[in-house]
Amino acid sequence: MAGGNEPRDASRSYYQQNENRFCQGLLAIWALSDVNSDEGGLGLVPASHRSLVAAPEELLNGSDEIGVVYQPVLRAGDLILLVESLIHGVLPWTSSPSPTLVAFEYSAEKAARASKPTEPPADWIDELSPEQRAVMVATDQPDVGPILKSDGHSTTLEKKTGVYHPSMLIPDPECDIDSREFFLWDLCGHLVIRNVMDPGWLELANTAIDDCSDRIRVGGSAAKGSEILAGTGVPSLHELLELPKPHCEPFRKMIADPAVVQRLTWMMGSGFRLRNMRAICSPKGTSGHGLHSGADPIRPSNGYLMQNGRAYSEAINVAWQLHDVRESDGGFVCIPGSHKARYPLPPSFITCDETMGIVQHVAMDAGDVVLFLAGAQTHGAYPWRSERDRRTVLIGYGSRNIC
Questions:
Q1: Could you tell me the residue range of the domain that residue 302 belongs to?
Q2: DSSP-derived 3-state class of residue 233
Q3: d(CA 198, CA 203)
Q4: pLDDT in tens, 172-223
Q5: Residue 206's CATH number
Q6: Region label for 241, one of left (φ > 0), alpha (ψ between -120 and 50) or beta (otherwise)
Q7: Alpha carbon of 192 to those of 310, 334, 358: distances in Å?
Q8: How many other β-carbons are positioned within 10 Å of the β-carbon of residue 68?
Q9: How many domains, in total, are found in the chain?
Q10: Burial of residue 89, with CB atoms counted within 10 A of its CB: 0-12 exposed, 13-18 middle, 19 or more buried
Q11: C-alpha distances in angstroms, 332 versus 22, 257, 329, 361?
Q12: Residue 354 and residue 241 share a domain
């Protein structure tokens, strides 16, 4: 895999300024034959052109796709355009004969690209020191050059070539942050934690909802006029923390669970507070939820920023799954990377009438938890289609800056 926004390469980057986009490098890939799902070929990581965290090495070398590599389905004659800084590569072909793709690379008028030397250096260059020559003479590998180091008093030329770019910040081995989770959070705007609840805890939570079903109230449809998302009103159980004992206990256990607190701490910083909590209890036929939230326009409640190695997330929802959920069932969907979008969401996306394939369903097992940027990441829900009720406990947290 190649590309990515960290470390930054100005000659291949994507910029957005004053309502204008600037793609310094663009790839145009034509499909000369059909490319079906899981057939291989073009693989890409959506939203990685805006990532502020270095991609894990296992993602780049292809040993682990970490669930973010997308292989587009193409028909003969299709054209796919991608900014060059998007992480992309060629996946192994699984069909025979292999489909055919043709790629063209375009550079912006102002893009400055390092190039190989076209003429031999002048004779006087030989009179310079190795350190001086390293600054004067282009190499045959423009992306990997000589490394000079200096303590402010003397300069030395390293024997090896490569990239050396000092930083005041270094990874803290005691920060208790999983580097892959850190990358995924910045890339996507959501993170799934598996198997947080054990079977006993799940049983207590589901029993509590069963026994308190008379408290469930049905709200209105959240489909926002969409025919695709249409259905009956959404049933919810509120005041979970105030249910009679022992029914309140499995929900009180959620509010400061260690697995969740660990992630919220590096996502938001200390001082976050619980803002709201409810259980979504949707039977078959319940409406979906039109897509909502997003990074544009910017508001305090939808803020997200990566700065000096820290994530600043102002509002986070934590959804606890009490039943298994698959895409055929319906439920939570989102647009990964939309927490960095700089353009309003098109109306057809809100209703899911036309999504251009960027809306992603998040499949989970009972006991899994998904954290997502409540105000910054565009999200919603598909209508519930399963014979088994949707059961999700949704908890909203706010940072110390807004609560």
A1: 179-398
A2: coil
A3: 9
A4: 888 999 999 999 999 999 999 999 999 999 999 999 999 999 999 999 999 9
A5: 2.60.120.620
A6: alpha
A7: 20, 13, 18
A8: 19
A9: 2
A10: middle
A11: 33, 22, 10, 6
A12: yes
